[in-house]
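We emphasize that the prediction below concerns an isolated chain of 357 residues; any contacts that depend on oligomerization or on bound cofactors are therefore not represented. The input was used exactly as deposited, without trimming of termini.
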Amino acid sequence: MSRSILYYPSMDIKDGIWLRNAMLYWDKIHSIVPNQFDANYSPEVQALEERGLYSPITPDELFFSNEINVFSNEVIHKIRGLNPNYRKNKKGDMKNLQLPQVGTMIHYKKIPTGLYDLMKSWGLLNIDSNGEWLQMEEETANLYMSTMAEYLAKISSADMVIGTDRNSYVYQAYEKQWKSQRSMCLTSVFEKAMPTPNLDISFETILDFREKRESELLHLRQEIRNFENSLSICSSWEEIKAVTNAFREKWECELLDMDKLLKDHRIGYRLGNMKSLIEVSGESAGLMQFVNDHLQSLPTWAIGAGVALAGVIGVGTNFVNHRVSLKEGRNNASFAYLYDATEQGIILRRGDFAELI
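Result of the prediction step, given as a token string:
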């Protein structure tokens, strides 16, 4: 079964690093585009669409689903959580809500009627002169689009996860809930361990490489999936260490093979970064209890220093509210990915990455 990744928060994917990673490690890429909207895609996204590797997903798939009321209620809950001074009056209206100046543009077709009316009455959005675009406060807009991506992935019939190029957006879709056993997940981090073509390599060259080396790329993706699935069912600290050590040794060999393939095709590359949030099996109660008991005393360091002479493969814990994000019977453990560089805060930031090993 093919695997898809849904990019958010914007409809056009302008980050070249993110897109190059996604091209190599995913079968299909999506973004959220209003129905019957003529999107002005970047040349890179246009090239992917022509090859059948990109397709838009419309908000209508959510708005006409059974999840629309749950989605709307979660958006309202998150918006209220943005401002600690928020209070409801007897009519349930917003009171003392002081959000920053309106600034981010969202197409009106991305907001269902009920939420539109409510957010407008709360002063969270303004309408532009032609009535198609709404100005919304930036943090509220990112929170809204992150939550929409989460729900679109949930209702999709495809094997779909969400992905972004900004660290904070992951936690707008999945609220942090520290020390909550029911919302624990593992975090895997690849630092300087993901081959990513350089920005000066043309998309056509990368796409040709992808078509010619499909079996090798499929094998590479399967190794990552196997690693994440193995982590998701670990029930002890020692087991996580063993799984990660075994994968690190295997990944070093994979990197050597990929280095040869890319050089044979004259594709310059760098070793980039990836972080994923991984669902923990319900049978891992012992691991959850261990983390809860020892989280504050565990050292902050990662397994695998020396991968490809420079990189790190680490495994840690996060506590996020993903109770509504996971689909029954989904055959992969991960539900969110982040591709980016160290300067965006992907790697080893104490506070959102509590290390186990």
